[in-house]
Design goal:
By secondary structure, this protein is an alpha+beta fold. It has one domain. 33% of the residues lie in helices and 25% in strands. The radius of gyration is 15 Å and the shape is globular. It starts with 13 loop residues before the first helix and ends with a strand.
Length: 85
């Protein structure tokens, strides 16, 4: 298994793998009533990819590793979260 879906872009055009995620992976989580965490590397895909994926999910959590004062720090923020009915 991959740690993020960005690896799908290696052998597929953007439209193909985004459609795969939107029509197979995400609906599968909903059918199973499970929480799916899908990672996607930032800054390597077109804006269209991020727009499609972000519009299809219930929440977006950003993770970042940054050097601060010679020390590596992990950062996390919840950018958006939808309320479920």
């Amino acid at each position: 298994m991959a740690d993020n879906i960005s690896m799908l872009a290696r052998f597929n055009d953007e439209k193909s793998w985004v459609e795969f995620i939107l029509t197979r992976i995400l609906p599968g989580h909903r059918v199973r009533k499970s929480t799916g965490i899908v990672g996607c590397a930032k800054g390597i895909h077109s804006g269209w990819v991020y727009e499609q994926l972000e519009a299809a999910v219930d929440g977006i959590v950003d993770f970042k590793l940054e050097e601060v004062g010679g020390e590596m720090m992990n950062f996390m923020r919840i950018r958006s979260m939808r309320e479920n009915e």
